[in-house]
Write a structure and sequence with these properties.
Helix content is about 35%, strand content about 20%. It has 10 helices and 9 strands. The chain has a 6-stranded parallel β-sheet with strand order 1-4-3-2-5-6, sandwiched between helices. A 3-stranded antiparallel β-sheet has the order 7-8-9, covered by helices on one side. Strand 8 and strand 9 form a beta hairpin. Bound molecules: pantoate. The site of pantoate (PAF) has 10 residues, from strand 2 and helix 6. The site of pantoate has 10 residues, from strand 2 and helix 6.
């Protein structure tokens, strides 16, 4: 695994790999790597002749005022150790500086549009987050020019917006792979932010996943989605420890909330603030047409 910090070093490594017929597979991260990230690399390495490029960059433009940009864990040394210990590490680790990504004020330049979807669910609590995220992902796509990119399914709204951006602005030239959420033994979704939970918060956190399963179970037994959601919400709202932000069902193909009577593939989304830590999770399932 080679570490590069500049776009010119990155591009020279990538052109050599392409000349050898490699497929460039991009895995963007903000570091503080855990098993979830490592599974993205594993997924990428399964592609034939993969040349996996992993980036570590804590992107300032996707954090709003008062968000955790300053305290976001930066653990480059241990990240490098974890990567080097893999049987199949990425071929290239790209760790650009803020100046490399946003030279001379370019952070303020117009960003790819998240549109109305940038103002719902995560976008309500984190205004501007998705514009900043799309800005950096499109920058990476432009400099890495990957054939394939791998993202985790845990950030469902992010993934939806990235797929839409690839369709609208990159002519579907990048194949997006959706990697399954990696979970702890008690099914809490792995996240770099879990380390900020107290013992009490950590023991509450698996309630997110168990509630998702409960809603899915009750819908599959014939309960109306609106009733199933209302009944399950109280388990997630437990102030002062935990405050439910949203528990919602969306049509997976449009990310629009569904009404009772909908049938097709849905995503059940949840966000809860546990202590000051924002936790999100989701599952995907089918709602069958009534027989
Ligand atoms: O999911 C993340 O870690 C970030 O939003 C991403 C895609 C690396 C962009 O900064």
């Amino acid at each position: 695994m080679k570490l590069v910090e500049t776009v010119s070093e990155l591009q020279s490594e990538i052109s050599q790999a392409k000349a050898l017929g490699k497929t460039v597979v991009f895995v963007p991260t903000m570091g503080a790597l855990h098993e979830g990230h490592l599974s993205l690399i594993e997924e990428g390495n399964q592609i034939q002749d993969a040349f996996v490029v992993l980036s570590i960059f804590v992107n300032p433009t996707q954090f709003g005022k008062g968000e955790d940009f300053d305290r976001y864990p930066r653990t480059l040394e241990s990240d490098i150790k974890a990567l080097a210990a893999l049987t199949n590490p990425p071929a290239l680790l790209f760790v650009p500086s803020v100046e490399e990504v946003y030279p001379a004020g370019s952070a303020a330049e117009p960003k790819p549009r998240a549109g109305a979807l940038g103002t719902v669910f995560e976008g309500v609590a984190r205004p501007g987050h998705f514009e900043g995220m799309l800005q950096v992902v499109s920058w990476f796509f432009e400099v890495v020019k990957p054939q394939v990119a791998v993202f985790g399914a845990k950030d469902a709204q992010q993934l939806f917006l990235i797929k839409r951006m690839v369709h609208r602005e990159f002519n579907d030239s990048i194949e997006i792979i959706e990697a399954m959420t990696v979970r702890e033994d008690d099914y809490l979704a792995k996240s770099s932010r879990n380390r900020f939970l107290s013992k009490e918060g950590r023991s509450f956190a698996p309630t997110l996943f168990s509630t998702l399963m409960q809603v899915q179970g009750s819908i599959s037994e014939g309960e109306k989605p609106s009733v199933a959601l209302a009944e399950a919400s109280s388990a997630l709202d437990s102030p002062p420890l935990a405050k439910l932000d949203y528990l919602a069902l969306v049509d997976k193909s449009t990310f629009s909330p569904i009404s009772d009577g909908f049938h097709g593939e849905v995503q059940l989304l949840v966000a809860v603030v546990v202590e000051s830590v924002r936790l999100i999770d989701n599952i995907t399932f089918y709602i069958q047409e009534p027989a």
